[in-house]
Amino acid sequence: MARACGLGLLLALLLPMVSASMPGTVVRLNKAVLSSVSEIGKAPLQRALQVTVPYFLDQSGEGLQPTRIQILNVRVSRLDLKFIADLGVHLLAAANFTFKVFRIPEPLELRLPVVLQADARVAQGSIGTPVVSISTCFSLFDNAIAFDGSNSSTPALLVPLQQHINAVLRNKLCLSVSSLVQGLNVHLGTLIGLTPVGPESQIRYSMVSVPSITDDYISLGLNAVLFLLGKPIVLPVDVTPFTLPQHVGIDGAMATVGLSQDLFDSALLLLQKAGALNLDITGQLNSDDNPLNTSVLGRLIPEVARQFPQPMPVVLKVRLGAKPVATLRANNATLQLQPVVEVLAPTSNSAFQSLFSLDVVVNLSLQLSVSKVKLQGTTSVLGAIQLSVASSNVGFIDTDQLHALMGTVFEKPLLDHLNALLGMGIALPNVVNLHYITPEVFVYEGYVVISSGLFYQR
């Protein structure tokens, strides 16, 4: 089945330019992919064309002699693919068949050049996968040539022998191509499988419309649904249908993938609902790297020094109440977090008491990259962290004095945690064994584009 993918790699990551439903993902395969697919497709096509030829009834001697014929070798010397607007893909293959005719007293070897042409229709399957079928197929046969280059030794045999072979191959070759395509459809079905995002979350892509096909590309509209504990993540507002402009990314790239703002919003909502963005930052006594203790706080807040004459470690409980906001502008992606940070210290009975809590606004620069089939991200802080007091059990707090401390004890743990999450990545549309190679990521107003090559790992 996987071998069938060489012929169908062209169709294995069909990427669209039509409107997609929420959240919208658009992918387009361009002409540049065709030559690569043609080379990969030769080997599986050669194997598929290695069919069985029934016995030939030889009438050149006395009576009818059943003669066995075997295909020794099939060599596909040429495989060309091109897009057919509103249909799918046209295939043209040139192959040389080598036959061994077990004729008595001496066997005969023949070479038969064949040209095979077929049109493959690409449609939308009932379960949201691409479905490929052969709509037309035919073969053109040249004259068979005896392997020793001499046809004069068997002139009476060659004509009926070739007629027999042609009649058999005319049907069997097209049936073999159809069978190859059916195996490809099973492989294409892996597009809709659930792919893990985190321990309790997954993403699933599926087609939402019929393919859009022109002479220059083939495309699909995909719906990306994120799941948390088996339940879909649904954005709280209606989303706008996403379309991918014609000229974005890199001209000549094999694949162009468009990811809408809604996909990013859905992914961030999943992280919030899963609690993945929450963290606890624990201070250590006698630590120059993390001066998060009551002694340091007491220098800034007198009431803390009064309540804790002896240094005690402090814990920051970072909880994200508001949904993170991703903003996509031309060549610029940013992320805003608005966590509530509660500052706690241990009491004598080993419980923790709340000293105060802060409303925090953190603006982050978001850098995106692709590894194999995953979109990954890293962040860095933009500007100063904004602080305001939400509640206090230690009297007045001067937030200006807290800024330097928060930058030391809060910023780095937050970035480490966030970058570890974003580094896990989220799967892009793909089928088994197909990877993105040399990808480049572009940020546009309201969407992201990935221009990439494709690599099929056999």
From TrEMBL:
Name of the protein this chain belongs to: Lipid-binding serum glycoprotein C-terminal domain-containing protein
Organism classification: Eukaryota, Metazoa, Chordata, Craniata, Vertebrata
Keyword tags: Signal
One Pfam match: LBP_BPI_CETP_C
Domain of life: Eukaryota
PANTHER family: BPI FOLD-CONTAINING FAMILY B MEMBER 2 (PTHR46019:SF1), BPI FOLD-CONTAINING FAMILY B MEMBER 4-RELATED (PTHR46019)
Signal sequence annotation: 1-20
Family: Belongs to the BPI/LBP/Plunc superfamily. BPI/LBP family.
GO molecular function: lipid binding
Stretches that traverse the bilayer: none
Residue span(s) of domain Lipid-binding serum glycoprotein C-terminal: 249-452
